[in-house]
User: Fold these one by one.
Assistant:
Number 1:
Amino acid sequence: MPVNCLTTESLYQTPKRTRSSIAAWFPNTVFYAKAFMIVFHAAWLAQKGLYNGERWVESSIATVRALESVGGRFDLQNLNVPRELDSPCVFIGNHMSILETFVLPCLIQPQRAVTFVVKESLITYPLFGHVMRSIDPVVVGRTHPREDLRTVLEEGEKRLAANISVVLFPQTTRSVEFDPQNFNSLGVKLAKRCNVPVVPIALKTDAWGLGRRIKDFGPIRPDKRIHIAFGDPLRVTGSGKEAHQSVVGFIEKNVSAWR
């Protein structure tokens, strides 16, 4: 297995292992200490212009290992989908926590160059902002929907034309509940414009909870299994309504089953 690859199989499940007593009693402290070091190192490299795709994957795998070290359990399915694509695509997923932003790179980037559509605040974060800017994301403000639509379509088209896939979370905000009514069709619109497939991603990542004061620093809950599943690529035809419904149906079905 390549060093910068979580697995070469289509499935991945966290192997059984024994946590240290400290990790069992203080999962938040242990995980966030490790996460800080991962982000600090990544930011240092990014500031020097040395944070490339391979480094991004290494950081992503390190985050998986940090979660596993405090008892987090991953159940990842259909990992063969990104490696079997013959073109860039638009990955469309539900947005439950910041965990997916950390973990998805090691599932996609080893197979196909990728970036994210992110809110503006993420690129201004201390340390983490350097990392996010280094992956050349599509940045939206989340305050003017029409302006965001134009930005995603225009900037997303540039990334896709450069053979870089785009990960997009159509929900207006992170939520542990999946509400199809708040799941817009922006990803499908981008795929249709650029004539590339969409790939749905169903995510259950509430093991990294939402914080009360600072949303990204919520409790780590090792008892909640982490699920990620890729769906089959879909071609967008006609108005795109059928593709959008297929994406929503795939996510809804999996999230309901995992719950």
Number 2:
Amino acid sequence: MNVVIVGNGKIGRALEAGLRRAHPSWPVHTLGRNDERTAVAQAEAVLLCVKPSQVRATLESLCPTLKAGSVLMSVAAKTTLASLAELLPPGIGVVRAMPNLPVSELVGMTAIASESEAQDIERAEAIFSAMGRTVRVEERLMDAATAMNGCGPAYAYLIVEAWIDAGIKLGFSYETARTLVAQTLLGAAASVLASDEHPAALKTAVTTPAGCTIEGLMQLEDGRLRSTIVRAVLAAAGA
């Protein structure tokens, strides 16, 4: 598939890296603000990776070269399908997508919303599922998806940072603590995805009576970690 990424910020560069790793044979072009738009004329999919305030001006520069039958996939936050469609010529599919930065490592998470033809959504899924997992959501939930998976890595990094600090306090080197924490978190996430059990059941399986795990869990509950995370996600969704 011929893909053009418009915007070379962090998410644009992450998508480029992920696509080049997942599909080395695909033509992938990344365009900055002042780059020529000629590559767009051959693109089957155009990934719009610009700030919401730049969407209108960017689409005005793209529209004359968009290929009939191509699909515009916008990752611009708070930019509706309707507002995108009214800026595009007829015959161009429109999809909203909210990926996160781990797409560069092929373990990203992308939420997708569209009212276009099924083939347009399938094309979006083919692109983003190559770099991790995808879910289809109603457009009204796209801002919530931004808070959940778009912002989500930052929440995890903060927890990882604190967890590593605890390891250093216990006497591990930074490198060893980082490995212990990152692989443990990776394994826990894999268990959640592989199991139909609720995370509470998985937690119970680790928590032996009168053991050290319950001591740690009590401290997390005393620190209101659970409610703090919920409030953080809700605040990001409303921002």
